[in-house]
């Protein structure tokens, strides 16, 4: 089981839909226009099949107070942040620290996704690292953590996410 967490409005649902598109095709084609999405109220379970079946449980951002009740069967974690919103990045960092400190997730592999890099106001990886002190977070965490910049809207970086999911989380970006 892979958990997909992040604040409301960061693009989790679109990410899952795009990963499904990518895994069902040849992985190289144009993804086309983004499919319509609605805010997730509750949880969505999605199977992605490529080399092996991966079940992603997306939890709505509004569910953050009870995310911990879903940690039990989690072997990997996708944590999504909005790279175009510095204010929300700070709040998301606090959520991430809470998630990383959970004992049930101590052995989970973690991929932090910085989404919305297609927007003109997105922060660079260097700016994000500085703002949320990402190197310190990674150094202090028990988990193996990788990061990737993505655009769920246009597909940038999604093949890296799919590879991370398929290859047992060996990618370290």
From TrEMBL:
Q: Which CDD domains match?
A: Arf_Arl
Q: What is this protein called?
A: ADP-ribosylation factor-like 16
Q: Name one GO molecular function term.
A: metal ion binding
Q: Which InterPro entries match?
A: P-loop_NTPase, Small_GTPase_ARF/SAR
Write out the residues that bind Mg(2+).
13, 40
Q: Which PROSITE patterns match?
A: ARF (PS51417)
| Highest classification ranks of the organism | Eukaryota, Metazoa, Chordata, Craniata, Vertebrata
Species name for this entry? Tokudaia muenninki
- A family per Pfam: Arf
Q: Can you tell me where the transmembrane regions are?
A: none
**Positions contributing to GTP binding:** 6-13, 61, 115-118
Keyword Membrane recorded: no
What would be the name of the gene that encodes this protein?
ARL16
Record keywords, A-Z = GTP-binding, Magnesium, Metal-binding, Nucleotide-binding
């Amino acid at each position: 089981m892979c958990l997909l967490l992040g604040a409301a409005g960061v693009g989790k649902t679109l990410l899952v839909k795009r990963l499904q598109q990518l895994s069902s095709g040849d992985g190289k084609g144009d993804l086309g226009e983004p499919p319509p999405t609605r805010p997730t109220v509750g949880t969505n379970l999605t199977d992605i099949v490529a080399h092996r079946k991966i079940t992603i449980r997306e939890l709505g951002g509004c569910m953050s107070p009870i995310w911990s009740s879903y940690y039990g069967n989690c072997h990997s974690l996708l944590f999504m942040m909005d790279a175009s919103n510095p204010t929300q990045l700070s709040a998301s960092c606090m959520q991430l620290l809470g998630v990383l400190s959970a004992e049930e997730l101590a052995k989970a592999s973690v991929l932090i996704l910085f989404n919305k890099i297609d927007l003109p106001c997105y922060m660079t990886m260097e700016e994000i690292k500085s703002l949320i002190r990402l190197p310190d977070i990674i150094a202090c965490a028990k988990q193996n953590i990788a990061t990737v910049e993505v655009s769920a809207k246009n597909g940038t970086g999604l093949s890296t996410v799919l590879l991370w999911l398929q290859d047992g989380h060996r990618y370290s970006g």
